[in-house]
Amino acid sequence: MTNIIIAFKDYNIFRGVWSSPWAQSSPTGGETNVFKWFIQAFTNKDFYIVLRNTIMLNVLDLVLGFPMPIIIAILLNEVPSKMYKKFTQTVIYLPHFLSWIIISGIAVQLFAPSSGIVNIALGKIGIPPIDFLMEKKLWVGTYVGLGIWKEMGWGTIIYLAAITGINPEIYEAAEVDGAGRWGKIWHVTLPGIRATIVILLIMNLGRILGIEFDRPYTLANTTVMDVADVISTFVYRVGIRSNQFSYSAAIGLFQSVVCVFFLIAANTIARKSGERGVW
Amino acid sequence: MIKSKSHKIGDFIIVLVLFAVVLICVMPMVNLLARSLSSPQAIVNREVGFLPVGVTVDSYRYVFKDPAFSRSMIWTAILTVICTLFSLAITILCAFPLTYDNLKGKNLINTLIIFTMYFSAGTIPNYILMKDLGLLNSPLALILPNCLSVFNMIILRSFFYGVPDSLRESAELDGANPFVVLVRIYLPLSAPVLATLALFYAVGRWNGFSDALLYLTGAPQYHPIQLKLYNIINNLSSLEIAIQEGGSSSTPAASDGMKAAAVMFATAPILVIYPWLQRYFIHGVTLGAVKG
């Protein structure tokens, strides 16, 4: 972790982390300017695109993906048959255990413009083939959709556990008061899992700039780079592939600091509004 | 309680909606299986839906014939076993001491460990660390960096906290040292949690590839199966693969059926283990949620 210091240096791979000089404003020498790489990032158009993509994909994930497990968990809780509930759970947890490479492999097959089943179905109702992985807007949709597909089932576990923790007497009392199924969901179940929802929301907000590497890397291709290039893939490409260690380390550090900042901010707001918070 | 009519209709709709969710989860995989078993002709002719057409196992035969692929499967299996055992050992040895109230500096250790969960140094500093340690292109680079998951450690620690202190105290009265207490009391009691964590570690290793992408650019013989799969799926031209593998392999681009078969191969081990372990993990995950 102390290697973070290279974000403030002109890292030279032969001199090592500690002997490399502090960042200087020009290659030939000049003044020491330890924030050089940060300034370079923020004056670079590419970096803004990467930043925008990261935030865009994460916000879409949050808005569209976050409610899904809550809805499914509530539905599961209402299922009359125990067997059916178990069966559903077993199946919908499975995608969580598939790697993003496997999922990208499935997606390539599913959405193949010429022979994929999705386009066969679209063709039946007269829609010409659509390349979901090559068209920018559709790629964003596919990215978000596949993310929901992978995690919507797994995400229910934590909510189901929270629902189990609700005192059954509250349901009975609600029934006595004449609450129907909707009334019980709205006035008992949802308030019962509110603390869990808030905690997960905080954790998600804390990751608004943090983005995994596997998912964008495996789903992206050169035609959609304008929307698919995110911080993690950018750092990999610029840092490891092009050897700009100090520059990409500075971007990585910026990302980590913003993440922690958001986490603390979200937690503080939650606690101020009377919730339990993460800590 | 007698259910009203509207309640029954509600039940029906809920069952139906959940069935749709189940289908959405399963159907892409059924489609994949069907394509892997279909003739290339049928795939090109847009005939393959959820059932194979012109059933053949040629795609599987082709994938299996590629020595690099099967070798990588075996290597990844070995690696997964080693990583899982090693990670479990480290996780146990980290979680157990932290349950002792009289451990000196316990809060500091806890804080430092949790800190890494929220703040990571980032890709580049880690890369330079691996370089300075001389681990680039070494299989150890696939084992050491991710050997402890803080999340898993917290799950186990929470479970250990749940073991009654009286058990430990009575064993200590009988002269048991901490190691005996761990092996004879805590570990047998936490078998379900350990099974869950083993599943998490094993799946993580089996599915992982970014560490190999970062640290093993010059050692393709240690590349895990997922990275091989990535090359097949994305038709990385033989030239690029030759560069990555540092060799002279010149495989032609794979057909859709072959890609599907390769994906099925890499998925199979997970599909085999999953039903056996899934009854354990629900409990395990919930534990981690209780105490963060």
Please tell me the overall pLDDT of chain B: 84
Largest interface: A-B, 77 and 70 residues
- CA gyration radius of chain A, whole angstroms: 24 Å
Flag low-confidence runs of chain A: none
State the oligomer: heterodimer
Poorly predicted regions of chain B: 237-251
The largest β sheet of chain B comes out as: none
Give helix % range of chain A.
55-70%
Q: Tell me the Rg of chain B in angstroms.
A: 24 Å
The ordered H/E elements of chain A are: HEEHHHHHHHHHHHHHHH
Instruction: Describe the largest sheet of chain A.
Output: 2 strands, antiparallel
State the shape of chain A: flat
What is the end-to-end distance of chain B? 40 Å
Q: Structural class, from secondary structure content of chain A?
A: mainly alpha
Write the layout of secondary structure elements.
The complex is a heterodimer of chains A (279) and B (292).
Chain A: H1 16-19, E1 24-26, E2 29-32, H2 36-42, H3 45-65, H4 67-78, H5 82-93, H6 100-110, H7 117-124, H8 136-151, H9 156-164, H10 168-176, H11 181-192, H12 194-206, H13 214-219, H14 225-228, H15 231-241, H16 245-272
Antiparallel strand pairs in A: 1-2
Helix pairs in contact in A: 2-16, 3-8, 4-9, 10-11, 12-16, 15-16
Chain B: H1 5-36, H2 40-44, H3 58-65, H4 67-95, H5 106-118, H6 123-132, H7 150-162, H8 165-173, H9 178-189, H10 191-207, H11 210-215, H12 225-233, H13 238-245, H14 256-290
Helix pairs in contact in B: 1-14, 3-14, 4-7, 4-10, 7-10, 7-14, 10-14, 12-14
Could you please describe the fold and organization of this structure?
The complex is a heterodimer of chains A (279) and B (292). With 279 residues, chain A is mainly alpha-helical. Chain A has helices spanning 16-19, 36-42, 45-65, 67-78, 82-93, 100-110, 117-124, 136-151, 156-164, 168-176, 181-192, 194-206, 214-219, 225-228, 231-241, 245-272, and strands at residues 24-26, 29-32. In chain A, 66% of the residues lie in helices and 3% in strands. Chain A has a two-stranded antiparallel ribbon. In chain A, strand 1 (24-26) and strand 2 (29-32) form a beta hairpin. In chain A, helix 12 (194-206) runs antiparallel to helix 16. Chain A is flat, with a radius of gyration of 24 Å. The model of chain A has no long low-confidence stretch (mean pLDDT 88). Chain B has helices spanning 5-36, 40-44, 58-65, 67-95, 106-118, 123-132, 150-162, 165-173, 178-189, 191-207, 210-215, 225-233, 238-245, 256-290. Chain B starts with a helix and ends with a helix. Residues 237-251 of chain B have low confidence and may be disordered. At the A-B interface, helix 4, helix 5, helix 6, helix 7 and helix 9 of A face helix 1, helix 6, helix 10, helix 11 and helix 12 of B.
